[in-house]
């Protein structure tokens, strides 16, 4: 028997083993006891552990069945501080733990920690194969492995969560129990916008207010006001529709404002409904919205991912997106910066700030994964969070956003509203007493972490500088010359940081390019260590197609000290979503790889000097540049420092084909000949015999057509799951949105024409007997009349776009049902199917010819004329090319 087991009190007087309570599990802190000894004590299953019998795990969490037999649920391995931050160290340790502990113990989960970094590992005990566990957002699960009195219950809860939510195929967690009010958000926006014409900002404020109303009522916080009048959601929803809005505004709203009063700057938590109580239509609409919320059921547990993306969903509405990008940062970018920030390692009471906070994403995202105890546990002291913004509406939404993020705090605690109200008002503050906004703050070494996306404009900066220069205090504070608002913002961040503390600041390319910013760059290099410059792709932000970058720097203890290490540069190609107006999720996402490279670099920056740092980072998008390359008089557009061929290989530039004049002339002749052939093919279609008579067949004729739309399917419903055999179509009806195992449709006995409800009104034919599935962005026309050809029907419907269908005037089910199809009629008075097929073939031929012509012309777009072809031999040309690249490389920072 191991002496350690007796000293730790794990062996009772009767000889039975019993660990420390950790949730519903037993915790054993070990390190000296072997598997053979643990089996003898009844802590692990009694069996022959063979070559692993002498293995000594650091800690175990076990469960027991009714007969008291143990089952190991978690193996814990501790390493020296900073060990896991080294490149490849985590994988090496995980492999050893999987083979030496998890496999012999039959344990499917391990946790590894060095006190700073934590990794959770899913293991197949039968094969000892393993993978790091990922959260729902694709980042590694890194819940701290704290086995002390305050942390072990969380470790046990994480073990249970992984058991419940882990997808065994992807090793990614998938939440199932939380409420996702996405559909409610969509319905509310559409209803309010259609009724009032308000922009998404006002619609969003209205949705958040009703969401808080329902949520607070579900928790029992909203029951009656101080005079005894009912304030519950159920009471208001049961009122006559004409009365509910007025009653809410007169009775319930004041109660919410009393529970969550405005701060000293008078910015409220609820910003105002976009509905007027005196408007009867608005009253009826409000009652309808309440009905939708009631149908959705209780809102006690709101999906954390929804909390993170609620504002993003509304920004996808294209009414006034240009006004929102200035204070909204895409969630994927926020997540990556939070993951790099090290915020989980800040000590209680230290300060994280966003002086240009918008709706609060940088301050609230950490509350989901990185700081799960802040404001939620009486025993855990929180960080101090500070967010300022000039826009009162944005701050109001940030306050409501914080209530949603901390929604579980309100459950079961009558005093929670007062506590949370104080927290919310201390966190977010409006700075609108001057057009300089947050710039009127003048912090001096007060912040331990800054994550921010300042406004970036040049016009109007002179007025702000004039206002600031009139006050000597501001004039001294903002003493570095420059031309953009972001210049002033960066000065504030640098001054506000405490020594050795870090900032992440998103800036436009102009700040890194303009000669007028040389003094600012010199100031940054003198006072701070430049740690990373990250290139984001164009159109990352809603409001601007401009190129943006993330500057990462930390404050020097002594200004002017030389920087000893280089600077990590990273080129992001994709951010996990399309960079158009719709912002659909996509698989391509370079941000998690950026986080991994940044962590490796930060573990030992000096190790990446010299040759081939990109190979040591194992990522071609990463490169460590010497600090000398960042001279103040040179531009810092780090993506432009890479050779063109390298950027093309990374997909950052469209491919360019170099072509000599003779080859170009031949290519033009080929394209010209092809276009003439296509023209002849189009002329042939004019010879198709036209029908003598046409008759209109209404798509609303239920004897001939059956119209329907599919069911709602989100990308997250498909991601990480094994695809099925059935194609699923959405707005793009020519390419599947995904593949599923079961269709939402039942009858495939008739041919169908699919149409895209959103997008460019695409059309596609599905023959009878072909099984498929549809989302709510895809409509289906079943052709019940066998005399109507589906190919002709599709061709005839294509003209509907000429009637106005586009991304704005959507081809809804009702609008499509109102369309008619002109059907060729034969001499017998019946639909002429042969004529339909001939016309459909002619249509396809013309459309195909147009596509071919576009392709032929498009082949000329990426050509680059090479005048050196034929003037020198290939060896000379290669040497000359290297000489040119060498000269350009030498001047790449100029």
Tell me what you see in this structure.
- This protein is an alpha/beta fold and 894 residues long.
- The chain is 36% helix and 17% strand.
- It has 29 helices and 31 strands.
- α5 runs antiparallel to α9, α11 runs parallel beside α20 and α24 packs antiparallel against α28.
- The chain is globular.
- The N and C termini lie far apart (71 Å).
Secondary structure blueprint with pairings:
Layout: H1 3-7, E1 20-22, E2 25-29, H2 35-40, E3 59-64, E4 70-78, H3 89-105, E5 109-113, E6 118-124, E7 129-132, H4 152-165, E8 166-167, E9 172-173, H5 182-196, H6 200-218, H7 233-238, H8 241-259, H9 280-295, H10 304-315, H11 331-341, E10 351-354, H12 361-364, E11 384-389, H13 392-405, H14 416-427, E12 428-430, E13 447-452, H15 461-469, H16 472-477, H17 485-496, E14 497-508, H18 509-513, H19 518-527, E15 528-536, E16 548-555, E17 567-571, E18 575-577, E19 585-589, H20 591-603, H21 613-617, E20 622-625, H22 638-641, H23 644-649, E21 657-659, H24 661-685, E22 693-698, E23 705-709, H25 715-718, E24 726-729, E25 738-740, E26 752-756, E27 763-766, E28 773-774, E29 778-783, H26 790-798, H27 813-817, E30 820-825, H28 833-858, E31 863-865, H29 874-890
Helix pairs in contact: 5-6, 5-9, 5-10, 6-13, 8-9, 11-20, 13-14, 24-28, 26-28
